[in-house]
Amino acid sequence: MTKALFVVSECAPLVKTGGLADVAGALPGALAEHGIAVRTLLPGYRTVLAQLGKTKKVAAYKDLLGGPAKLLACNVAGLDLLILDAPHLYDRDGAIYGDATGKDWSDNAERFAALCQVAAKIADAGLGDWTPDIVHGHDWQAGLTPEYLNNLQCEVPFVFTVHNIAFHGNTDAEKLGRLGLDPARFNADHFEFWGQISALKAGLVGAAKITTVSQTYAEELLTPAFGIGMDGLLRARQADLIGIVNGIDLDVWNPATDPNIKPYKTAAGKAANKKALRKTFGLGPSDGPTCVLVSRLTEQKGIDLLLETLPALLDRGGQIALLGSGDPKLEVALLEAADAHENLSVKIGYDEALSHKMMAGGDVILVPSRFEPCGLTQLYGLRYGTLPLVALTGGLADTVINASPAALAQNVATGVQFFPIEAQALANAFGRLCDLYADKPMWKSMQRNAMKQPVGWETSAADYKAVYDSLTEGQK
Ligand code: ADP
Ligand code: GLC
């Protein structure tokens, strides 16, 4: 049995800001089916500690970046967790990466360096009789782990998964000593990036294998437009870069058993959910498709493109129910647009249960992202017979089959893609969408295709196992 230590900053169902948490929450269960035992090292944020039942103290640290800390082992929702309880770093009001106003915590470098230091200690000295064969870090918050493994001369291999290259975790060089990093490695070959410490770069340099969350994103990362300063390094490491598409938790996202909705097994069961959805969002009856969008509201997600192209959908009788939070400017722009258009209804906030109701009640899930490493909401949409309209990028390119004439002729289409990722192309896609929606037999067969597309973790968990095996073979 291979033992893996996940190092991650969020994990569903305990703490979530985006898809990273879903992956961290679902992948360990899928890996278990392949004989891999995962323990997940997670910061003991105040909200996490409040949800834990019985815990066992398995390690203590007198001074972890400025204060005492301990490691608590526990099991939540089938996850084998190691919670890093370090009150000086994680016990505070506000959100997990920043304060209530959305400003990043000024000590984020320390907060996540501490997590990486503890990961390295666990790999090096073990926890009782448990020592991981693999350390698997996710995103920049886990990026410094190989530096600390190196400081300890620990050779347990590190796998690094890039969920979003846009976040670098940069911090000032003057923190080198405080973070316990080796000054001799503060150079372009290691973790220095334009004069700063880059946690992301440390992870990319120090990983035995780098994975990312779709094949297309793995290719995109090699280009300047998507690599955001790391494309040169990634081209140099291309032989060790592997795209593995995300899956979704088929128990949590199952229209036949979902406790948040009126359950259904075929798309015909969506009608009752659509009625409920329209009521919740104050939308009246309409001839065109009812579209839903559930998202963080950031530049990445292409919300401005949507605002620019609203008439192309609404003038054809389409409507939109949108749930999201994030950039205050986008929130205001959306609320203003909703005031101006009766077929656009916007709820600002974060609401897991409502997101399920939207998947069940919508005809279409919109994902007009400028870039999207994988994306999960289009996968939920497929499973719920809610056809995705997506930008042709990253995981959105890999998981949706565009309704081209050829795909329609072969009856394999599951959604609509647009490219280039610009307003005019999105407007054209809305036109195609409305035409398809008006052709009821065509729409129904696309829904059937979507609902039978495999979107679970099975294949991808096997791919991760192959990555682990390539690193542990010979060790055992
Ligand atoms: P990202 O990780 O870039 O935000 P993903 O599509 O991978 O994008 O994952 C986003 C996850 O967060 C999905 O599970 C989505 O349903 C959820 N989500 C995003 N915004 C909200 C919201 N306002 N309310 C409920 N769930 C949300
Ligand atoms: C990131 C990406 C998203 C991906 C998620 C989980 O937040 O933006 O595309 O699905 O990570 O891997």
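^ alpha-D-glucopyranose complex. Residues 267 and 332 are 34 Å apart (CA to CA). The chain has two domains: 2-247+458-472, 267-451.
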